[in-house]
TrEMBL record:
Biological source species: Caenorhabditis elegans
UniProt record, GO biological process: lipid metabolic process
Protein's UniProt keywords contain Transmembrane helix: no
Signal sequence segment: 1-19
Name of the protein in its database record: Fungal lipase-type domain-containing protein
Length: 329
């Protein structure tokens, strides 16, 4: 037993050492060759040129839990598609209570395009929840795509930039009452954990929301669990860097060849980049299927190796057809 404990500690230290070598190598202006674990080795079949892609897994204290996501996060994320979300999560999370719902026009210049979110709390599990709805219509999707060409907005001076549509959408909801309610919930339940989630567009808004409440000091990052499903790229490299430094528990779940998880493009004019940690299910996501936690943030690894992306995998997560979830309530 003692040997096993020593081995696990040594192996974790070895992973940390390799990540540090990779980071130092890139900082020196060279590339890290994954194939031979050497700095600047050439020719190299697989190399890393960005420090966020240096292999690093979540620490053991904040490990990914498939059952937690499957039984608690998915119902909360999918419930945001129902105008009355409590009807959806009550059968699966009977101790969860809806706090408030928020709807706002989240298009600054385009036609009416509503975004939706809700807050809830559970005095048994001692948690608060912010859940955000994904893209609700073809019109909204078009608005998002067109808005990509308008660039990005600064989130915080030390926390990079956010894709304009996600930035605006979050603050429209935040100013529509979400801020007041989450502050009141935090005041009433100061020691509770905060779960933040969403699917698709909702995943991007969840990322921004979690980052905002931590950066502004409403919550400390050790009290926040961020789990998103099919999240598109949300901010630039600086945003991803800040996020990774501040969030011990943050997982982006990707189903097989989900197209949305790879847009907007990483190499566009705004250099958008995913934050950690991707959890890739290269299967139908049944309870017996395996998953892979990607050690790199956003390179040609894990789901990015799949060039043949599709929308079907985006619409179904953990066996749940997300757009049809409200019909099950």
């Amino acid at each position: 037993m003692q040997f096993l404990v020593f081995f696990l500690i040594f192996w974790q230290f070895f992973d940390f050492l390799e990540a540090s070598k990779c980071t130092d190598c890139i900082a020196s202006g060279k590339h890290w060759c994954v194939t031979v674990n050497e700095c600047g080795f050439s020719p190299c079949a697989t190399s890393i040129s960005k420090s966020l892609n240096c292999p690093e897994l979540p620490d053991k204290a904040h490990a990914y839990d498939d059952n937690f996501v499957r039984t608690k996060i998915v119902p909360l994320a999918a419930s945001a598609l129902n105008p009355n979300p409590e009807k959806c999560f009550k059968p699966r999370l009977p101790t969860m209570t809806l706090s408030k719902k928020f709807s706002a026009n989240c298009s600054e210049v385009g036609p009416q395009s509503n975004c939706f979110s809700f807050t809830s709390f559970d005095t048994t599990q001692k948690v608060l929840v912010m859940s955000f709805r994904g893209t609700d219509s073809p019109l909204q999707l078009t608005d998002e795509i067109l808005d990509f060409f308008t660039g990005k907005k600064q989130f915080f001076p030390d926390a990079g930039n956010i894709f304009t549509y996600f930035y605006d959408a979050f603050f429209f909801l935040w100013n529509a009452g979400l801020q007041q309610d989450i502050r009141q919930l935090k005041y009433k339940y100061p020691d509770y954990e905060l779960w933040v989630t969403g699917h698709s567009l909702g995943g991007a808004l969840a990322s921004v929301a979690a980052s905002y409440v931590v950066h502004t000091g409403i919550f400390t990052s050790d009290k926040v669990k961020l789990v998103t499903l099919g999240q598109p790229r949300t901010g630039d490299y600086d945003y991803a860097t800040w996020h990774d430094k501040n969030f011990p528990y943050s997982f982006r779940i990707v189903h097989r060849r989900d197209l949305v998880a790879h847009i907007p493009p990483q190499d566009g004019a705004d250099k958008l980049f995913h934050h950690r940690s991707e959890v890739w299910y290269n299967n139908n996501m049944s309870t017996t299927e395996p998953y892979h936690i990607c050690a790199e943030a956003d390179g040609f690894y894990c789901s990015s190796r799949e060039l043949d992306t599709n929308i079907a995998d985006h619409l179904t997560y953990f066996g749940v057809f997300i757009p049809g979830w409200q019909t099950k309530c």
